[in-house]
Specification:
homodimer, 206 residues, mainly alpha, DNA-binding
DNA sequence: TTCGTCATGTAATGGGTTACATGATTAC
DNA sequence: GTAATCATGTAACCCATTACATGACGAA
């Protein structure tokens, strides 16, 4: 099995961004950190090796636009290597966007997967959101249990920290609830509209 | 200089917990994850090597309570090794709790440092809180700048993600603001009470 | 012509995880 | 007596970072 772990979160992020438009590494990194800036920041030291590896695996290729002058192309080519997805790369991206497993809802991966939700199938989106929610609820539960056990002697700072953490997670759960609600509503709407097909449309307030 | 990076966050966490009371590894891990559960979870694979290393560095030692029977002690001792801080360990802990540098306010370290704030000097606490706040504000600023540049074409999911991230960080900043306010108030109160001593108090707003 | 930023890369290192292997203790 | 949990440990690996080295290019 092994499923090829490959290059962690970066693989998806790079493939996803390159799918939207070809880019060179430096720019890629900026877009990356603009996209996920609040969660993580990647350095060149991880990005370039990743590109190299993706290239070796045939998932991306250099994108030299129509180059009439071959000699010039061979010589002048230094600095700025624009990459684009290959067919295999697109396939791989699709595959990554379709698996709704722990990799998609654990802390490291969730943000990246979410960032490309618009390229993700609706049912997969829903399962990822629900997966993350139950993951967080699980954590919440375990945490509260541990809290109950050590309740006795906690200084005020520890308490403050734990409360803040608790509230953060609860907040994310509420956020997920809202997103899940919206996703489901949309799915129902689609199901209904495809089911009707020849009946009159009806409003169902936003 | 080099400052001995040593064993990352774990070092502080372990020393801090052992300072409160001697413990064995297994228990240590549970307390650790109860304390920081919302932020990170450590596995045995990292904890035990860390203990081993701390032992080798002479910062902790096995805590065999009064053991009248030596022979029995030598034989039966398998499973459950209780550790406690050595004098060096206490000193090291104190040192770690006193440095108010990036290690204390970056994402990885902040939680742990905060968790032991009750053993931290008031001025160090304040500097760490302010350090973290400006770190977050910096991130906020950079993020908004990047946002402004790529504003044009962002799909609704990306937007949703970025908003959520933004709000999370803003929320943490507000939390820090409150904590800083409290810290300062307390410090002023202390300063005032020690300053007066024989005169009447005078207001000096903020 | 020099400085800042854009741009690409590599080597050493690091902190941590997973998976594995093992043994003791407790509860049933 | 056996299953679950407590308890300790190791080895292989992984993803990413830091620090470094290099060079092109535009603006002052």
């Amino acid at each position: 099995m092994a499923a090829r772990k490959g290059a962690g979160v970066l693989e998806l992020a790079v493939l996803g961004l390159l799918h939207e438009s070809p880019m060179h590494g430096y720019e890629l990194r900026k877009r990356l950190n603009a996209l996920l800036g609040m969660f993580r920041a990647f350095s060149y030291g991880s990005l370039y090796p990743c590109l190299k590896q993706l290239l070796a695996r045939g998932l991306i290729m250099e994108d030299r636009p129509e180059e009439p002058n071959v000699a010039l192309a061979l010589q002048s080519r230094r600095s700025k290597i624009v990459y684009k997805l290959t067919a295999d790369g697109k396939e791989r991206l699709q595959q990554l966007l379709t698996e709704a497993g722990p990799a998609a809802w654990e802390d490291e991966g969730f943000g990246v997967h979410f960032a490309f939700f618009s390229h993700t199938r609706a049912d997969v989106r829903l399962r990822i959101l629900e997966g993350r929610r139950s993951r967080l609820e699980e954590r919440l539960e375990g945490f509260r249990a541990a809290l109950a056990r050590t309740r006795e002697r906690v200084d005020s700072y520890t308490l403050e920290l734990q409360n803040h953490g608790l509230e953060s997670v609860e907040r994310e759960v509420r956020w997920l609830n809202e997103l899940i609600g919206r996703e489901r509503a949309e799915q129902e709407k689609l199901a209904k509209s495809s089911e009707i097909d020849q009946d009159m449309p009806r409003e169902n307030g936003r």
